[in-house]
């Protein structure tokens, strides 16, 4: 603190901002970060650490710790994300089975675990053991009959309603941000938007607990999307422990990109697919360093989950499969047809779901989130219970649909008529005629498919954690399995047709219906999310079958082409636009021939631009300007007459600087002159102390001329992550273009309501 005494403004002044003060460089909630500034600040920090490291051993050790902190954060994220995913998987398994019965020997065992420990289980009745009792057996000592069925039906609905009500209540009371899949918001956050609390500790805790509840309730949703949100919450928590990340929003987003990869890694047991998902689908800025760290985080997360072994099959996912039959060129036609189905389903789902979510936002329906969840859960449970394919968990359904029919399978889908003279190895069972079980399974699958398509539209977007990967895959897997059985039976009964003659002789194992289910699942997931490369890699990691990459690629590309023909937006981009997040999608093309002068503010007839002058405004003038406007920053000019641009000052930093100056620097009063130059201005004697704010001034704000094409401006905003850009002509300030102005202009050019894209 310097006491100026009788000295005038030109005396020995202290620029108090030479010492950092709290909150400088931070951003307010629902604002966009300045990527260039964050990058510059990190470069300065790194340069300072490097120069200090040569001074002493201790400083050298500190520089090593700083360099390694990124890898430590990745290790911690991987460990926590893998542990949470394992716990969620185990809890979901137990609570899903709790709706149907309980294990008497240990109530915390799921149905499968209960019968593992039993010595009285036979191979034919592997799902039955005396230790596991349905609710009707426990309460009224009946396992068969109408009364037992009705009691089990009633308790199934009650458990589902109980789980769903508890989940929506926890979200509503403790963490409103824990609802939805979280991927649209994470995409927006990674693009530079600040949503405080979205990745907080409460959100992490409540999302983890409620995710178990909603998946166990039997609603048509998955846990894979929300696991990305959970992993990003872990990333945000650990990055706040290291100043390198907690004080730099740009660096923090590198950690969150890697955390998203770890989330997909544990969701699907696909570490490489997770890295590609983060790169292709969610990340905005993805330098090479982040690629390596994402890879490491995904590896640690997958290793941790494998150590927990939640499914007891030494695999990372429930629906790991191995096929023993190659695919043939003639099968590409049905695979491409499944791709077309996936694209059409994706388009239908996005349009219907967005229409329903818009209705929820704009009508009274949105005021009753708890009632909506209860009604949808009740409808789902009532319709799902009678059909064995909708009663079980969606992951188990997909697992059964993916399965190849071996000699030991007891599923209805494997009820084929066997040749009594067959003496072949177990893995190579020839194609056989379908039995009555297969035909009844086809009817049940067709009804389940229609039900899943309709109910998922209303379920996704409710005020509970809800993922879309698993329901989309289930829709595709059901359609694919039915097509696969159809092709298999066609090949068996008409093996003399020209298309089957070359590759499907009688007694050969030609068609694998499970493969069609897998291709259908990939097609539907691709149609909804518009993923391509990462989707194929995830599916191939799921199955471990390298030779099935071509069918998967054909289906994924076809579904994307078909869906893109009806609209370029995937489900996550559609929800980003619905919520009005300021997200500039890299995939969008801007081809209109407008100029910067058409978009900049002020427009003709509007009030002139609010600016600061370099050395002629008082503290009171600056405070009045801040109070009367809500702009995020102000250009600084030489004078209001010349309007020559000097730099740009952020609103938040002006407020903090003036507040701190009044507290820490004597002589600063309301009529003190504020100056942004190196040397103080000439002031009359006995003037109050001037306030030097050069330190908070950005001396190199990004500028374009008024004749710059908007195509170039949009590209600059996308690639450099700008918050705003100043428009000049011959060094003279004309106006300003913000990210919101760019988004409004793009909406206007696409014949949309410009105000619909603003955050709400």
Descriptive notes:
The protein is mostly helical. The protein has 3 domains: 227 residues, Clc chloride channel, CATH 1.10.3080.10; 213 residues, Orthogonal Bundle (Clc chloride channel); 155 residues, CBS-domain (Roll), CATH 3.10.580.20. Helix content is 55%, strand content 6%. It is built from 28 helices and 12 strands. The strands form 4 sheets. Strands 3-5-6-9 form a 4-stranded mixed beta sheet. Strand 11 and strand 12 form a beta hairpin. Helix 8 runs antiparallel to helix 10 and helix 10 packs parallel to helix 12. The longest helix has 42 residues. The relative contact order is 0.11.
Give the percentage of residues in beta strands: 5-15%
- Name the overall outline: elongated
Radius of gyration: 31 Å
Helix count from the secondary structure assignment: 28
Q: Any idea of the CATH class of the largest domain?
A: Mainly Alpha
For the record, the count of structural domains works out to 3
| Biggest beta-sheet profile | 4 strands, mixed
| Chain-averaged pLDDT | 86
How far the N terminus sits from the C terminus, by CA atoms, comes to 44 Å
Family: Belongs to the chloride channel (TC 2.A.49) family.
Pfam families: CBS, Voltage_CLC
Transmembrane segments: 68-92, 153-175, 195-215, 227-243, 255-279, 332-356, 368-385, 441-461, 468-487, 515-540
Subcellular location: Endosome membrane; Membrane
């Amino acid at each position: 603190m310097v006491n100026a005494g009788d000295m005038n403004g030109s005396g020995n002044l202290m620029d108090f901002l030479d010492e950092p003060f709290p909150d400088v460089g931070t951003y307010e909630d629902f604002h966009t970060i300045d990527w260039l500034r964050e990058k510059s600040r990190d470069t300065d920090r790194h340069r300072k650490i490097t120069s200090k490291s040569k001074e002493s051993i201790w400083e050298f050790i500190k520089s090593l710790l700083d360099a390694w902190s990124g890898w430590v954060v990745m290790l911690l994220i991987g460990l926590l994300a893998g542990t949470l995913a394992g716990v969620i998987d185990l809890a979901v398994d137990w609570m899903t089975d709790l709706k149907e019965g309980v294990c008497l020997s240990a109530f915390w065992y799921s149905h499968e675990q209960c019968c593992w420990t039993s010595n009285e289980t036979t191979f034919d009745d592997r799902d039955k053991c005396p230790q596991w009792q349905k609710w009707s057996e426990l309460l009224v000592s009946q396992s068969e009959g109408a009364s037992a069925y009705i009691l089990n039906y009633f308790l199934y609905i009650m458990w589902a309603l109980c789980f769903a009500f508890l989940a929506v209540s926890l979200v509503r009371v403790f963490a409103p941000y824990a609802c939805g899949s979280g991927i649209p918001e994470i995409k927006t956050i990674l693009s530079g938007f600040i949503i405080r609390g979205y990745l907080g500790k409460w959100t992490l805790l409540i999302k983890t607990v409620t995710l178990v509840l909603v998946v166990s309730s039997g609603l048509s949703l998955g846990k894979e999307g929300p696991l990305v949100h959970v992993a990003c919450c872990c990333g945000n928590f650990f990055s706040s422990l290291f100043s390198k990340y907690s004080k730099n929003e740009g660096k923090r987003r590198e950690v969150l990109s890697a955390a998203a990869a770890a989330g997909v890694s544990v969701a699907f047991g696909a570490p490489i697919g997770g890295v590609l998902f983060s790169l292709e689908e969610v990340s905005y800025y993805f330098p090479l360093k982040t690629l390596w760290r994402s890879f490491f985080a995904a590896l640690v997360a997958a290793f941790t989950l494998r150590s927990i072994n939640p499914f007891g099959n030494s695999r990372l996912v429930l629906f790991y499969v191995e096929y023993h039959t190659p695919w043939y060129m003639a099968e590409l036609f049905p695979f491409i047809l499944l791709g077309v189905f996936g694209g059409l389903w994706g388009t239908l789902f996005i349009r219907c779901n967005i229409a329903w979510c818009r209705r929820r936002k704009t009508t009274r329906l949105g005021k009753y989130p708890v009632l909506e969840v209860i009604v949808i859960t009740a409808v789902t449970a009532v319709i799902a219970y009678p059909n064995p394919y909708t009663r079980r968990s969606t992951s188990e359904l997909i697992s059964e649909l993916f399965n190849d029919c071996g000699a030991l399978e007891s599923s209805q889908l494997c009820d084929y008529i066997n040749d009594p003279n067959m003496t072949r190895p177990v893995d190579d069972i020839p194609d056989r005629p379908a039995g009555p079980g297969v035909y009844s399974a086809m009817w049940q699958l067709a009804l389940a498919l229609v039900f899943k398509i309709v109910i998922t539209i209303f379920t996704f977007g409710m005020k509970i954690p809800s993922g879309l990967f698993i329901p989309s895959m289930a829709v595709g897997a059901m359609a694919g399995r039915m097509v696969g059985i159809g092709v298999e039976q066609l090949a068996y009964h008409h093996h003399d047709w020209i298309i089957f003659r070359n590759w499907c002789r009688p007694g050969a194992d030609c068609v694998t219906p499970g493969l069609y289910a897998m291709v259908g699942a990939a097609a539907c997931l691709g149609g909804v999310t518009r993923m391509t490369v990462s989707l194929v890699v995830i599916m191939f990691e799921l199955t471990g079958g390298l030779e099935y990459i071509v069918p998967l690629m054909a289906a994924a590309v076809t579904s994307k082409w078909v869906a893109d023909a009806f609209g370029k937006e995937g489900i996550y981009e559609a929800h980003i636009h619905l919520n009005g997040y300021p997200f500039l999608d890299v995939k969008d093309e801007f081809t209109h021939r407008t100029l910067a002068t058409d978009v900049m503010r002020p427009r003709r007839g509007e009030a002139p631009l609010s600016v600061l002058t370099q050395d002629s405004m008082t503290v009171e003038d600056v405070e009045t300007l801040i109070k009367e406007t809500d702009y995020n920053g102000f250009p600084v000019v030489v004078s209001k007459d010349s309007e020559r641009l000097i730099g740009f000052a952020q609103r938040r930093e002006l407020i903090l600087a003036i507040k701190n100056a009044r507290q820490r620097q004597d002589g600063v009063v309301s009529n003190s002159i504020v100056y942004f130059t190196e040397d103080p201005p000439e002031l009359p004697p006995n003037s109050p102390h001037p306030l030097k704010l050069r330190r908070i001034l950005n001396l190199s704000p990004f500028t374009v001329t008024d004749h710059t094409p908007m195509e170039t401006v949009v590209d600059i905003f996308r690639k450099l992550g700008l918050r705003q850009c100043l428009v000049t002509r011959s060094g003279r300030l004309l106006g300003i273009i913000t990210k919101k102005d760019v988004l409004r202009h793009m909406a206007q050019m696409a014949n949309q309501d410009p105000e619909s894209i603003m955050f709400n």
